[in-house]
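ping. complex inputs:
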Amino acid sequence: MRRIVALALLLMVLAALPARAENDGDCVYTLLDRGGNVLTMRAGRMYAGDEYIAADNREYRVVAVDDAAMTATAEYVSDSASEAFAAKTDAKADGNKLICMYSTHSDESYVPDDGTESKWQGAGIYDVGDSLKAALQKKGIEAVYSHETFLPHDADAYTRSRRTAEELLKKGPDALIDIHRDAVPARQYETEVDGEDISKVRLFVGRSNPNAAANKQFARQLKAAADEAYPGLIKDIFIGRGNYNQELYANSILLEFGTHEIDKDKAIAATAYMADVLDSVLYGKGARSRGQRGASTQSAAKGVGWAVLALAAAAAVFAFVATGSGRGALKKLSRHVSEVTGGMMGKKEKD
Amino acid sequence: MGIGTILLLVAGLLVLFGAGQRVLDRLRLTDREAILFIVAIIAGGFLPDIAVTRDFAFNIGGALIPLILCVRLFFKANTGIERARAVLAPVVTAVAVYALGRTLPEEPEAMAVDPNYIYGVAAGVIAYLFGRSRRCAFIAGVLGVMLANVATWAEVRMTGTAQRLVLGGAGAYDVIVISGLLAVLLAELIGELTERAARGRRRPRAAFHGGDFEGRRG
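pong. complex structure:
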């Protein structure tokens, strides 16, 4: 009883603490190559194993992180063959074109125009999302942009937005987009495309999900199409820890339209170009060819394989812990497989 | 929806409920009842949400079915103390979930355990402290997350923000379902570990029966 009272008291104290409030720009990590050259910046910690595909398609993997200096070091891995993901053939066979969107961080705003980086009502990110929706609709694509909010901007935001993501997926979209903005200095995102000052767009993929390979492939297709039509539009692809609800759908992507310091108009201006890129990849000349569809299925199959393997490994560890011997673990596993499959597989225990 | 996605969704559900059936087995359900609940959770997730007010709704598979299971488990409890635990554990879990939501880093990449799983882990540990009951763990996982969801929603509403809450809106993939299942699995793992540590290589004297261990406690 004493331990329960102690636990309850501890939890009460934790719950009474002010919510963890991290201002945008407080936690910005810089990614360096082996030579100490700056590759990019991102709002949030980087981790060993994170991947980075630069604007020039050079691929890196993070190998070390220095929290004191807020830097990470990445080693060069290879050049991604951009052409392999570039425009192919085969637009979507049927006529229905649908893209669904939402914004997990419903407070994200643009300081120069919205006056603050975080607004609980009327956040600037919804202006950007609405603009992308309008640009897609102009191209004859049905676009659904949920104005649901998922406040507060805390650890639970993605579990809340997961419900809307799942709801949107019931509509059977061709892509599911989570619209965000970054929190690094504005200069990181400022660019010029077709003579217009706009904001770059970062593609973000969560690597801790069984769908990560398919999500990454979708990101690469978007980048390849954008590089061809609008060089400079896509800032880069960052593949970091976390799942960001991307395990729910292969064509899921998180887009960062600019940063809290950039003019919102620049982020809005980028949406017309991004709509064109999405149209091209999903429905136009850049739509996936049969071969690429096969690759997507392979990516998903790989994810399935990992999920099953993880479950098998967890079951084996559990059985070993419980029995203390390899033979005992095998017997236990066999019995449980029999239970789960209704006796179709594994060995049934004799009464 | 592409074939790859369908494949992933199906496999995800199979993996989730392969373990899930074992979890339900631990909750005193017969195989037939367990399958029925699993089918109801999955199918219910695809049904339209039920709106209670303009800003509050719940999903059948993600909230109603787990809630029905909780009520059933509560009334199947053998003793008054077990029922008291089933009431207290979700409250403590809700406080834990709320506290974790406020204190954990905002971005998923900065968390050691994914936010979809951390609450199930918390519920499993708390339920174990309350008396190593798997039934209590499930109730704590499901109701704890629900209560914390409602508390956060109410807090946001008090600021004048018209935010909508759909309890269990992600159906079988919702954090409510995941937490309930994970909490039982964790309570089971902790139970096995302590049992094993206590008895060494000797054969177990405690026997599992009706959702709990009988005999010596570890």
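Chain A has three domains: 20-75, 82-288, 295-340.
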